[in-house]
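Please go through the sequence line and token line underneath and see whether the fold suits the sequence. See right below:
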Amino acid sequence: MKINYLCDMKRTIAAIVIIVVGILLYFVLAPSSEQETTVPSQEPPSEAKLMSKSEIATLVKQQSRLYSAEQTAHKTIILSTAEKDSISTLLGTLKWTRPWSKSHIEIPINVTYKAYIDLSRITEDDIHINADSSITITLPDPVIEMTSCEINHNKEVYDSQIFASQKSQDFINHHVTAAANDVWHEIGRISQDKILNSAKANANNIIANALLGSGYKKVNIEYRHGLNINGLTIDTGKILGNIKY
């Protein structure tokens, strides 16, 4: 009987040990209830990560000026002059054209332009964030920049009669400068559109790529209503002041 009792006790103790070990292993290896109920990620949805207007404005301004390809226009300045003489008399001033004093001048010039969009002028008022995670940006007017103006001396013409006066440097520069200022308005609309469309395409690509990479689903690039290609600013910089005949 005693032997049977000891065997029963051993089996009971072994069972208890197995149960205790099993309970300990359960609590050690099984996932806790906190882990089971926690949301996989507490990060806000993607919309909350989208850049603010001020951040967008800062990002766009960093791109500075975006230029188009160059476009060269040609113009020939034609000047026909004759010397005027006068004399004062008791009857008034008499004026006449000096004989053999005519001059005929032809000055071909080549003017090169680029268009640029100055993104440093972007403000938060130009940026509209839409509810569908798209964004609309209105860009400033393109500026036409004159990058060079050169006289083609190989094709210039200067014919003068014997009593014609020599034309001064200031006279020539004045007419070249005036003509260069007008060249943009005289070149064909196709050439003008080519310059502007190139600048717009560069701006659209740079801005769209930057903002699509920051989480926006769609980027709309616009320009102000009523944009007139012939009303754009012509930036001559220091080019005209450096033209020398």
